Structure formats: C-alpha cells, structure tokens
Amino acid sequence: MKVCIVYDSRRGSTERVARAMENALRERGFDARAWSVKENPDVDDCDLIILGAPIYYERPLTGIRRFVESKNGFKGKRIAVFILCIAQKFGRLGKEYTERRYLRMMSDPIKGKIIAARAFEGWLFGENNITIAEARTWAVKVAEAGTKGE
C-alpha cells in the first residue's frame, strides 16, 4: 500500500510529526513518503493520503486547503487528516473545541472518503515526544485499517 503524507508547517513541528509517521509506516512495510505541501507532490497513485497542518490564529495553515482544492478535494481517494494544536492544553473543553472546529476546517474541502481524523497536542518549546509516539502509532493503525478496506 502506498501512503502519501502531505503537510504544511511553519516552525517545523508538523513536519517532524509527518516524518515520524513516514518512518513508522516504512518500518511496518508500507511504501510511505512525506512531502511539504510547498513541493506540490503528485499523489494520484497513492492508496491513502494523510494530510496535516498546524493551527495558527484559529485555523489550519492555508497551504493545505489550497492543495486539497487544487486536487479536486481528492474525490475518490481515502484520506486521513491530522492537526497540531496547543488548545488541548486547556483541558477537556479545549480538546473538544479543537476536534469540533479545527478538524472540521481541515475536512470541509475534502471530497474523498475520510477514514480517520486526529488532533495532536502541539508544542512551542522543545519537541513533544508523547505527540511523536502517538502520531507514529496512529499512522500505522490508519494504514492497517486502510489495507482491510475499513
């Protein structure tokens, strides 16, 4: 199964998460590759596309949305989305708000089948190793579910 991870990143945290996902998937035998949205990758032959962006000023970075729109919303494709956000640091309500508002903003332009969506806790200073580990595990679970047609 070919898994393409496309991310937008401003300070490098989302790139770090995407690269961790790529490595975890490769370790499990998947044909995985991560690209910055700025590279405008050709993902037509990907079986699963994982899209990720950080949240800045109450919205995902705009590059990822423009990329999705340029690809006709990935109509007919299997998609997973993730965001990085620090709103989760504000407890249960922050987490619920994050999932309800920001994941919806990531998902709205997608016309393909969204098989998974996840909000990860971002960081400002120093890498969040818990987020990295959770992202690795999530990506593998999503890809394994995708091979079973779930």
Q: Which helices and strands occur, and which strands form pairs?
A:
Elements: E1 2-7, H1 13-27, E2 31-36, E3 48-56, E4 59-60, H2 62-70, E5 78-85, H3 91-107, E6 113-121, H4 129-147
Parallel strand pairs: 1-2, 1-3, 3-5, 5-6
Antiparallel strand pairs: 3-4
Helix pairs in contact: 1-4
What this model shows, in words?
The protein is an alpha/beta fold and 150 residues long. The protein has helices spanning 13-27, 62-70, 91-107, 129-147; strands at residues 2-7, 31-36, 48-56, 59-60, 78-85, 113-121. Strands 1, 2, 3, 4, 5 and 6 form a 6-stranded mixed beta sheet that branches. Helix 1 (13-27) packs across helix 4. The longest helix is centred in the last third of the chain and has 19 residues, at 129-147. It is globular, with a radius of gyration of 14 Å. 40% of the residues are buried. The model has no long low-confidence stretch (mean pLDDT 88).
Question: What key phrases describe this protein's structure?
Answer:
single chain, 150 residues, alpha/beta, six-stranded mixed sheet, 4 helices, globular
- Please identify the structural class as seen in this structure: alpha/beta
Spatial separation of the terminal alpha carbons:
14 Å
Q: Determine the fraction of residues in helical runs and give it as a percent range.
A: 40-55%
> Residue ranges: pLDDT <50 for 5 or more in a row?
none
Radius of gyration: 14 Å
Strand content: 25-35%
Main beta-sheet annotation = 6 strands, mixed
The general outline is: globular
- In DSSP terms (H or I, runs of 4 or more residues), the helix count works out at 4
Instruction: Give, in order, the helices and strands.
Output: EHEEEHEHEH
Instruction: Please tell me the overall pLDDT.
Output: 88
How many individual β-strands? 6
